[in-house]
Amino acid sequence: MKAQRAHSRRVALALAAGLMLCSAAWARSSPDWDKLLSKGYQLMNAAKNKEAAAEFEKVVAKYPDAPLPHLALGRALKKSGQMGDAKSEFKKATEIDSNLSEAFYEYGTLAEADKQYVEAATAFERYLFLKPDASMRKNVEDRIRFDKQTAADSGK
Fold first, then answer.
1. What is the pLDDT of residues 104-127, one digit of tens each?
2. How many CA atoms are closer than 13 Å to the CA of 146, on its beta-carbon side?
């Protein structure tokens, strides 16, 4: 009986140690995005959008499979007037994380501007699915109706 309890304790300790190692590894793999992106956002707030984009590009280069740096870079590029590149960054963010509502909204706005109405409506619908209580829900619903109607009228 004592041997069985000792074995159970060793197993429990090994499991606990394994969980601690997994937790530590997970914590290391999840960077502090606020800290990593803060310099770029400060530059954007100062209307230094090209410099902000350069900062975000550094973070994207280091974390190419993370959605938030792509979203941030897309926003800086959009503010710099580089709509095509911004749209690509928003699209990349949605491909990496299909639950990043802001990326779907941003992608929808640029798809709509490019007269890609079906893509815009789809992106806006995903945005509302992810954020059903969005404060601008009515506005987004109107955009979806517009995009769908325009696509239907143009045969696209």
1. 999 999 999 999 999 999 999 999
2. 14
Per-residue model confidence as pLDDT tens digits over 26-58: 334 679 999 999 999 999 999 999 999 999 999
Helices and strands per DSSP (H, E), number in the chain: 8, 0
Pairwise CA distance, residues 30 & 32, whole Å? 7
Identify the sign of the CA torsion 102, 62, 47, 115.
negative
Pairwise CA distance, residues 109 & 94, whole Å: 14
Chain mean position to CA 32:
15
Give the Cα separation of 29 and 8 in Å (integer).
Answer: 31
pTM above 0.90, yes or no: no
Give the H or E element holding residue 64.
none
Token pair recorded at residue 131: 């954020």
Cβ contact 106:74 at 8 Å: yes
Which is nearest to 108 in space by CA: 53, 93, 79? 93
Side-chain half-sphere of 93: how many Cα atoms within 13 Å? 27
Neighbours of 39 (CB within 10 A): 15
Q: Scanning the structure block, which residue is given the tokens 């230094």?
A: 48
